[in-house]
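Section 4.2 – Deliverable D4.2 (structural model, holo form)

The reporting period included a commitment to supply a predicted holo structure for the target in complex with DQA. Inputs used:
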Amino acid sequence: MKILVINGPNINMLGKREPEIYGSMSLKNIEDELFEYSKHFEGVQLEFFQSNFEGGIVEKIQSTDAHGIIINPAAYTHTSVAILDALRAVKIPAVEVHLSNVNSRENYRKISYVAEACIGSVSGFKQNSYKMALFGLVNFLNE
Ligand code: DQA
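Output (structure tokens):
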């Protein structure tokens, strides 16, 4: 079972970027930790993708052969009908992830365009949000 993990704009800056909000781990550290965690699930294979460009994320969603998607669209969460439409078009089960608790922050972060195309969301557990998403997605796909 192949799971595509997508991270959007500025997630490549993790570690340096507002650590009090996003934690002190780099994206590479988070990906390595998630890879280790994925070994708990037999046959699960991860692919990682990060882009600062909306179109790059749309093209990745359109071209993937993954069975499931974990996506932190970052700022595009709150603006992107294009990413929502791409997720809807491919009909691959997807989970929305956020490091910070978007619901306890500014009002504009409480709106998620992509949520309508996702089976669920995890927000506020820093790097562990990705692990929780993987647990939920793999169980969903195995049902
Ligand atoms: C984020 C939350 C977004 O509002 C923000 O624009 C990000 C990161 C998170 O993981 O907490 O870049 O998606």
